[in-house]
Amino acid sequence: LVLRRRGDTSGAAEAFRRAESRGHPEAGSSLGNLLSDAGDLSRAKAAYERSIAAGSTNALLNLGLMLADKGEFDDALRYLTAAEKAGDPVASYAIGRILEGRGDLPT
């Protein structure tokens, strides 16, 4: 994270990849964020999915938010709902915003 804050995105990406290869479940989520911020959404999605497979609930949230930003609301809701079930309050908020935007909130 220090490398990323310093603007060394390639160094940060390499560090996240090393941590991911050593089994750190959140490293793929951090790599996904880095790739998403760079506009490489397909590689970001793959990084998030690897992190989800390793047990990261942060990756569920981050992938859901990225998909929502792309307008892929059905897929976003699937990941956000899983993050919410894992206890993430930001996921609950994001789900509410999506449902509100669709006019799907209960009355």
Note down, in words, how this protein is organized:
The structure is a single chain. α3 packs parallel to α5 and α5 packs parallel to α7. It is built from seven helices and no strands. 76% of the residues lie in helices and 0% in strands. The model has no long low-confidence stretch (mean pLDDT 91). The chain is mainly α.
Structural class: mainly alpha
Average pLDDT works out at 91
Shape: elongated
How many alpha or pi helices? 7
Q: How large a portion of the residues is in β-strands, by DSSP E? A: under 5%
Low-confidence stretches: none
H and E order: HHHHHHH
- Tell me the helix content: over 70%
User: How many beta-strand segments?
Assistant: 0
| Biggest sheet architecture | none
CA-atom Rg in angstroms: 14 Å
Distance between the termini: 43 Å
Which terms summarize this structure?
107 residues, mainly alpha
Structure described in brief:
With 107 residues, this protein is an all-alpha fold. Helices cover 76% and strands 0% of the residues.
How are the SSEs ordered, and which strands pair?
Layout: H1 2-5, H2 9-21, H3 27-37, H4 41-53, H5 57-69, H6 73-85, H7 89-102
